Fold this protein.
Amino acid sequence: MHQLDIWSMAFVFMLATFIGFDVIRNVSRLLHTPLMSLTNAISAIAVVGSIIIAGEQKTTFSAVLGTIAVAASVTNIVSGFLITDRMLRMFKKREP
Amino acid sequence: MSPELIEHLTQATYLLASGLFIFSLRWLSRPDTARRGVLAGVLGMTLAVVGTLLHPEVKHFEWIAIAVVVGTVIGWPLSRVALTAVPQRTALSHAFGGLAAGLVGTAKYSLWLGEGELTTFRMGAIAVEVILGFVTLTGSLMAAGKLQEIIPTRPIVYRGQNVINLALLAVAVVAGAWLIIDPTRWELFPVLIGMSLLFGVLLIIPIGGADMPTVISLLNSYAGLAAVAMGFVLENKVLIIAGALDGSSGFILSVIMCRAMNRSFTNVLFGAFGQVQTAAVQGEQKPVKSGNAQDAADLLENANQVVIVPGYGMAVAQAQHRVHELRDQLTKRGIGVKFAIHPVAGRMPGHMNVLLAEAEIPYDELVEMDDINPDFAQTDVVLVVGANDVVNPAARHDKTSPIYGMPILDVDKAKSVIAIKRSMSPGFAGIDNELYTADNTMMVFGDAKAVIGDIVKALSGGSGIH
């Protein structure tokens, strides 16, 4: 791996963290529970790494670990997005 | 398609997914756009997964398909849990996130060890990923156990606890450092995993139930950082971005929770809340004024402004829907009703808002602590349902109180206070609440659901105004 790749990843991390702070700070306290379940679902993007390891099947050991990781991530994707939407549907404004 | 073209395509889906994730969180900031945020998240996730499946390295699909089915079968019921159980579900999902990171790190170590491609950087990133992943796994499982009350919610403490915990973490870090120097020492890898798993357990058992909102937020942050470390291992930028968003979100929420309880991170993690309370001085008991549902109804009926302060006790008693009926009865009479929400009301950040939204209480009537505190002086009646420490005036003036300095809802400044409680026994933290013996407070003893039901009955039957 090139040195440059390491640094560009570090830059991406720093910028994404700043964006994260900025965006999250603006989330109404009303929605902090759905926020946590949504960020949970989003960070289950770990599924892409797990898919590669489970799909390349280089060794049985790595394929088994990758497969369990895919299952764990999919659990978070499915339950995270569904429960966030379920909670958000409950938030209603006062009827005029 | 040529492999090169596919690689470009995959990266393009990752780029789009990253953008959609940022929009997703941006739209979540307001209730009226929030559901669009979920849609953006789902779209981003779908794109990234499709982009990955196109990747030429992914040759075998059977196991992936099985894993997707298994994940869906576990995930679906987890999305249908009662809203009181959302904190446990959240803790469990942090555990799954940690597990995925830990396993991917382990798999990559074994693969690169075999291929002789463990560079210093890769080994370092793997060590961080594995430590964070497995600490998050067991720590979150313990937190979920405490929230579900499978494990005692009281802090479990013993002599030399902090020294032992830090020693375990130190062993894990040293094993990690040794591996970075010499990655072929594979026998150290299980040590790294074992110590991380153990540290996760021991980190959480001394933390009491009252601190769970902070702990969940902190574990959320760890889970995000574990995903970031995975991104560094796999050189995958969408993972770094999504993980960083999750990590910063968890961090901000833990800071908010700590501030709301006037505690520091170190104090939450190493302080074992709940120890000092037993030492709290038992002052002479002042007489308590108590009344029944009819008395409460009379007070409420003659008020112009009513503020309801709900606590987790309300949710435990399943009284939310009765509270909604009470709110309807009062608004029908032209009485202004608002709900005062303390940041740590409930068991995770924002939990009380969700519980009240489920009871169909409009969200514009839910007011945050800082916004409602100035209003209490003009409030005729405050109704406290299942909240305790967050309305204890001792936090403002009693330096000997364990909750001294914690921001509270200033309900004692209202003209009168009605507190519904099962008995005079002290609350979760075991601290006497002087609000209950104040001159303007009336206690109504009983189950919150039954008492509020009776108040509603008295209001709808007695007055005849319809």
Notes: Chain B touches chain A through 117 residues (CB under 8 Å). The first strand of chain B starts at residue 305 and ends at 310. Strands of chain B lie at 305-310, 336-341, 366-368, 381-385, 416-421, 441-445. Chain B has a mean pLDDT of 91.
